[in-house]
Backbone:
């Protein structure tokens, strides 16, 4: 043992075993879903049934959003130079900053500010929401997670909260985000609660630490970025000029689960 | 429409809908698993039951392998400079090259060479395996996917093929890789079939195109890289010297699913 | 000393010295130019006067090429998400692949094929050029470094060879690339010798190994990428749609050295 | 012109010209040094003689610092996986964060705090330095740019200020950083002024905006990272375990300029 010895608490590897947070990986294979083992490796324990359902949902909901997001534009542009898949995908992840995906953690912090008002001042969530909007407005700050360039109603947010309702999942962050949504609507300037804002609330109520939150967006979107990179390789001319808005969709027409 | 107009066949986004390969995303949420929607977005259609089981397994099996792999070393080193999570994870993905994860696609191409021998020369898989090893040896090439620095038997490979057996999944690539494993053993110089080699065979028999194969390793390992980056942030001193072998494990002791 | 001990031959650092390829860094400071020390650190020795002149030139010539190149598009797109400067610049470097900057090394390899014809068949450079074009055409390959989307004559190529002429610098790679240029012109289908092709020839005649050649393009363009990233931060709205062709120039009007 | 039209003020490119900040690139080639054109592209104008000398020096001084820095460790680790040069170099740049190179800008901001004390309170630089150290200590903050793991005296700092002296270059940031160095020494706990701190002062007095400062470290170190990546490719076994401290130097013995 050297003086640089260090420990990790994630995975134990010996010649005969690979234990993920204590569980032999071969036991997890075939019995758990990928999303459940994601939760295990990141959070340290297997998720219960409700958490499993929410994590599958959260990872699915942002798996792709078409060619518009800068991460997709970047992946396609880098791919078109002849880059390999891993370099292209890495460049897409490097786009996940404050303005692209950052609202998950950003909204969570705002919700915490609101919850603090509830606790410190003994006021209702609804009153705290009105007050928080006012405070942010005076400081010239926006509340992350509200507003969307395209969607007036974000169908993912609607469905995520529907699922929360079905399984009876609730918490202070969800209460706060809904109070903010209501306060914006009551103010006569309604703002969409977008999927990032809603996700920040749900992850917060699931106990995910803030510095892990953007990881869920990364894991969710990587498959979409892979799909776009491979489509660019397979269908497009290298070094093409990639128009940021003049694109269409020529894939499968709308279809539905049975 | 400009002369730069282009189409994607992955996701259709309008103000009111987000359709992934035709399916409204809100229909997928709550009814599918993340792994199933990964298959949908990447391959274009929802997986059947057997494919679902295999994809969950393949994504779980390499979710982490402890501190040794260069992707983990790199993620921790980049994190220790004060990088944010997304930059650290991107640097880890940039390690997934020929010598790290590349054996999935590499083994598949070797298997295709072997299958070609079977077809062209009308010989058995076992004879083709012996011949392929001989050809590669003469050309000074190794067959990717065989041999492992640490594991004499890779527990993940054993379990993956066990699951294939349970669901009756088989194909020429699996047959070929098993014939190669046997040929190495018979030659008196047995070589472990590592999980990358086994995965190349299974993905090949599932019809995954070669340029998508490394994507499965990326998607699988990103959660592990996130866990290591956040652990580095939370537990370690910035700019520490990261020893590449002198580390231990101080997490949960071995535990088992019920 | 452990069994992992390794050596580097680039820089020796002790508590009291930092020697770059043997030279104390403080001796280089104030007496050499940056380009000369670049040559030292990469090639192992200080450049002579002619090499110095050529390296300064080669590093200047591609320092920027406006908003069109995919590396610039990517840097601006990544910057617009709120990324820091280093992440943005890294994403630009990740664009320097086969189709973007790759023609430096690509052209050099083609020139080596041509020089081999001269040597093996005892023919002139002009005859080898005609033959090489024919061989490549039959194999369906393009000779990298010829042709440019925009410039019919690349002003940088003209000036680079003018400087070579002024200092009397010549070599087989330069001879071969000029023979190819002539052969294309004589064929009735003239193709611009672009700056990447010309650079591959000059770097080849300077003795730069092929796996270092793309490094010169990286070093040259990084300042341009930094300029574009900072301009994007300072002037532009986050998350703007970046049009790939509809841009102008509103900087200093044309001016000249005294 | 579309409604997405945008302008850049860096480079004007037409079929017949490439003007960098107004200067035709072919005029710069052969007459300017690379460092001078770096200043032009980044700052907008050609540097005067003193600025030229300082910029050459600043770009040379940190061109490499051996195998210890995390950027070098990362570049070698990524290279060892089979990555190409550009991906490896990009990963090294991604290490240039708060704790690695960040002290250039960090020190500048501290110097600005000190200069503000001088102005607001009408005290001397020496008094402001003592006061600033006290303020930072009470806030539990370190002053970036002071202290070095290895060098008790940083030979680069000594030489940089020697050159400033030779050309008579001075300014408030340099005055402030020297006052801080003196205050630390007088306090009985002397702290090395490292090269990053000194560079922050000089770049500040040259009028470089803070968000450009880390760019100088990037441009300076990229050649070193290229040298390490290529040495790793040429000399080392893929996937080796890279020891972070047990390395030596087997290059040119110490030598001197004539």
Residues:
């Amino acid at each position: 043992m050297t003086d640089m010895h260090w420990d990790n608490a994630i995975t134990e590897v010996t010649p005969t075993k690979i234990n993920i947070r204590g569980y032999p990986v071969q036991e997890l294979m075939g019995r758990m879903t990928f999303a459940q083992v994601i939760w295990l490796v990141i959070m340290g324990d297997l998720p219960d049934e409700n958490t499993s359902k929410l994590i599958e949902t959260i990872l699915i909901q942002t798996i792709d959003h078409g060619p518009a997001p800068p991460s997709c534009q970047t992946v396609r542009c880098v791919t078109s130079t002849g880059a390999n898949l891993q370099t292209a995908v890495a460049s897409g992840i490097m786009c996940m900053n404050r303005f692209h995906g950052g609202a998950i953690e950003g909204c969570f912090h705002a919700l915490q500010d609101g919850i603090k008002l509830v606790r410190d001042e003994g006021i209702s969530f609804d009153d705290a929401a009105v007050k928080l909007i006012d405070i942010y407005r005076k400081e010239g700050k926006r509340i992350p997670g509200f507003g969307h360039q395209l969607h007036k109603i974000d169908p993912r947010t609607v469905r995520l909260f529907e699922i929360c309702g079905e399984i009876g999942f609730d918490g202070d962050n969800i209460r706060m985000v809904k109070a903010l949504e209501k306060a914006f609507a009551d103010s006569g300037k309604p703002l969409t609660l977008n999927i990032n804002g809603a996700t920040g609330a749900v992850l917060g109520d699931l106990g995910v630490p803030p510095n892990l939150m953007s990881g869920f967006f990364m894991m969710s979107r990587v498959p979409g970025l892979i799909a776009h990179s491979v489509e660019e390789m397979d269908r497009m001319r290298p070094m093409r000029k990639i128009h940021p808005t003049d694109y269409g969709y020529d894939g499968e027409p709308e279809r539905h689960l049975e």
DSSP finds eleven helices and five strands in chain C. Strands of chain C lie at 6-8, 11-13, 18-20, 23-24, 247-249.
